[in-house]
Amino acid sequence: MAKEPVELKVPVSELEIGMQVVRLDRPWLETSFLLQGFVIRSAEEIQALQAQCEYVFVDGLADAAASDCSAPSASAPGKPKPNLDRGKPTRTKSPTSLKPKSPPVNRIRYEKQCSVEAELPAAIEAYEQARELAHHLMDDLRVGGMLDMNQARQVVSQCVDSVLRNQDALLWLTQIKQKDAYTAEHCMNVAILTAAFAKHLGLPESEIEAVALAGLLHDVGKAKVPLEILNKPGPLTPEEFQEVKLHPVYGRELLLETGRWMPTVLESAYFHHERPSGGGYPEGLSQQDIPYSARIVAITDAYDAMTSNRCYASGRSSREALDIIYKGRGTQFDEELAQEFIQCIGIYPPGAIVELSSGEVGIVMGSSDQSKLRPRILLLRDDAKQPRPERVVDLMHLDLDPSGQKYQIVREWPNGSFGIELKDYLDKWLSLTAEIPEAKSG
């Protein structure tokens, strides 16, 4: 009798190396496993699944006659889509075009207009206003309030202005994560990351503002998802999982209610969980049908989620997140945009805590667009990982370490390592920038 692929529900206690995990008991983007489907290759991966899930679904084979009463495989042709609308607001065809926009042929080249130190005060002001708006926006919508698009545009415009002058300042601030207000902070960070990415892609300023606004409002539908589900530390039930998957539907409805929606914003809110492989939601679109703005936001959304601390998982380093995005290019993320985003952020982004070849540890302050592997670093710990006098070294200028060797970055550490909390250095950095001596090149 012919065998057909099916999903087999397996308790995490029974997982084995070699099994292909195709689905979890909670959303992929709500866990540290942000590649949607993978083969278990180590005991560490089994342990991670056991820490975050109660059961998973793996690929298996069943008799064709018996498969009619089995759960259909996620990869099986003709798989029925989950009914996201049962008991929920009715979805109608999107009033925006599904035809994706292509990257600009003639990219605009933006030059940094000032140093990160000079931009930081204005960046902090824009960041705080964006933070306040994001918190009020989600809180107001939860109690039936209306979305103030004018205010959202004004705040985004300030962020874009800062990004155009020097994106490193705001990117540094996005590294300061507040897990107790994840959804609001995440929306703010995605807006900033999206603005920086759109600048890197060479989009016109008006389009940078539009896609940054889309980043700010991409998860607005989560205001309609119960907090006990969003903040649940344990595995989600199938019903809770379905509720989370409705947030793009809720988001589109909230935006339509304003009567002043923009196509870019609406498309991103509704389609940012679609995937080139066709395995996303809510429509299961394939690559050619996913709007360009939604492809951009899908990447910035995933990157910030991966690098954030949440109630059920610690954030990954930027390098780990970029590696996941690279491995997911063409299936989870637009292949060309995934590679562009890695170039945009750089392996060691502003705000990253890094260890140098000398054993010293510091915070990345910023880098040249021409050499993101050799940034400027504020040294904070000596080779014994003890506090040391602050000093700025510029790897672009080939500064030398105490032994006379060229500094090199050997690894990135998560925020909080060696007692270094980024938020504690924010005010201090403002005063230090006028006082810290630059390292002398050898």
Could you walk me through the main structural features you see in this protein, from its secondary elements to its overall organization?
- With 442 residues, this protein is an alpha+beta fold.
- The chain folds into three domains: 3-69, no CATH class; 116-345, Hypothetical protein af1432 (Orthogonal Bundle), CATH 1.10.3210; 353-432.
- The protein has 13 helices and nine strands.
- It has helices spanning 43-52, 116-142, 149-174, 182-200, 205-217, 227-230, 238-244, 247-258, 263-271, 292-306, 318-327, 335-345, 426-432, and strands at residues 3-11, 20-24, 38-39, 55-63, 353-356, 361-368, 371-381, 387-394, 409-413.
- The strands form two sheets. The protein has a five-stranded antiparallel β-sheet with strand order 8-7-6-5-9, with helices on one face.
Predict the CATH topology of the largest domain. Answer: Hypothetical protein af1432
CATH superfamily of the largest domain: Hypothetical protein af1432
Strand content: 5-15%
What's the assembly state of these chains? single chain
